[in-house]
Structure formats: structure tokens, C-alpha cells
Design goal:
This protein is an all-alpha fold and about 80 residues long. The chain is built from two helices and no strands.
Length: about 80
């Protein structure tokens, strides 16, 4: 399932990296490519979640950065 989404630059990257990784581990080339596909899929979901959260907060009337703890994208102002 993970290999299906490996197109474009992601597919080229996974193809180049799969062979050396599979030679140095007990994983097959197909397993390494599936792992890359799963990683890229997880990163895509994370980016979508962050976008959705920003849109949701904007719809609630919050400014960017509100509701976050210090150190999570918001700078502390000197007191």
C-alpha cells in the first residue's frame, strides 16, 4: 500500500534509497519502499492537520498563535 503513493520525486528518492538500505538490513526493497510511502503519507496527514487547525481557529475568531503554550510558535515578550 505504501508504494502506491511513491510518484515523482518521492518515488525517485525511495527507489534510490531502497536498494542500499535493504542490503544493509533484513528488510526487502519492497518493504523499504513501503516504509518510505508510509512516512510520506504520515507527513502529508500532519501537514493537512496543521492547516485544518489553523482554518478552524480562524473560523473561531482566534488570531494565529492564540491558544498555544509559550515555545510552540509564539515568542515571549520581555517583561
Amino acid at each position: 500500500m505504501g508504494r502506491v503513493g511513491l510518484t515523482g520525486w518521492r518515488g525517485k528518492l525511495a527507489g534510490r534509497m531502497a536498494e542500499p538500505i535493504s542490503e544493509n538490513t533484513s528488510m526487502t526493497k519492497e518493504q523499504v519502499e513501503a516504509l518510505f510511502g508510509a512516512i510520506f503519507l504520515a507527513l502529508t496527514f500532519w501537514q493537512f492537520f496543521k492547516l485544518f487547525r489553523r482554518v478552524w481557529r480562524a473560523g473561531q475568531g482566534q488570531q494565529p498563535g492564540q491558544g498555544q503554550q509559550p515555545g510552540q510558535g509564539q515568542e515571549l515578550s520581555p517583561a
